[in-house]
Amino acid sequence: MNISELNEKYRIAGEVEFTNGVSGLPVIVVSNQFATAIISIYGAHVLSYQPKGERDILWMSEKSAFEEGKAIRGGIPICFPWFGPHPTDTLLPQHGFARLSFWDVAETTTLNNGASKIKLQLHQTPATTELWPFDFSAGITVTIGAKLEVVLNVINTGDKTFTYSDALHSYLNVSDISNINIDGLRLSNYYDGFGTAEKQQDETLLVIAKEENRRYVHHTADCIVYDKGFSRKIRVAKTGSKVTVVWNPGAKTSKTIADIEDEGYKNFICVEAANSYDDVITLEPGKQFTLSTIIDIP
Ligand code: TA6
Predict the structure, then answer these.
(1) Nearest-atom index, ligand 1, CA of 193
(2) Cα dist from 190 to 87, 132, 196, 219, 222, whole Å
(3) Nearest residue to 206 (alpha-carbon basis) of 253, 250, 252, 269
């Protein structure tokens, strides 16, 4: 559907509008009593969520590509049907094809409490089947209210059991990485990057003083990012996930990532709800599973 067809079918006057975003990629602009938000149809990707009177909760790279075939850097990329490199073929796209696909708009609704609900869907296509030989229906439901909720629901619509990993790869907007610390991870075990040695975090508040790529396992608690520069805290809650990823590339690695400004690493921290490691999801035909993240300023 083109922009005018989308507006005709799914526009909610004064609340939900479809338009061409950067480089013409179609986006959904939401504005209600709680917040404004922008969702890219490419990737079913929340680009911005700004509660009334607040700075954006999500970070977006000034150097992000907005181009079919490339991932958007910032916001909330959807990693599916694998998180990180493909488990057996590293030539396949990192973090799967969901963030590189155009999704279908399925629903726009105003909820009774005034929040806006947007639903997008993705099914197998010949291109996805080449990368991942299964029939599926994936839904992303974004609710923009006093909290931002992003829900990834996956249904096995085929006749073969499949296994997948996933993540809601939230980039949180912070004043400066040296101003923040993260609560909610104490006594959790984690892997460093893709390493195999499991460590335990002793400290209550995690300070990010260098590159970090921690995958906390058996972790279901909320994380709170305290940001003294912006005088706020961001809470990241989740359901359907036992792995929490905390990622910041630090100064050196940031310079090697083409779509992040050299100093860009200072302004975000990723706190991600994931199913990975011993929490990958196996779905028999007809079964479904739901992962969600809920982000707010408590
Ligand atoms: O979630 C952390 C991570 O998996 C890191 O290993 C890092 O590579 C990051 O995601 C970004 O991945 P991307 O493919 O978007 O560059």
Answers:
(1) 6
(2) 19, 28, 10, 9, 16
(3) 269
Cα–Cα separations (whole angstroms), residue 139 to 152, 205, 207: 6, 34, 35
In this structure, the chain runs to a length of 298
- Name the residue of 95, 190, 192, 212 whose CB sits within 8 Å of the most ligand 1 atoms, as the mutation to test its pocket: 95
**pLDDT at 216 exceeding the cut of 80:** yes
Catalytic residues: 169, 272
Dihedral sign of CA atoms 95, 147, 173, 242 in order = negative
Q: Which domains does the chain have, with CATH numbers?
A: 3-296 (2.70.98.10)
Q: In this predicted model, what pLDDT tens digit does every residue of 251-265 receive, in sequence order?
A: 999 999 999 999 999
Q: Please give the model's pTM, rounded to 2 decimal places.
A: 0.97
**Residue to mutate, 97, 169, 272, 275, ligand 1, most ligand atoms under 8 Å from C-beta:** 169
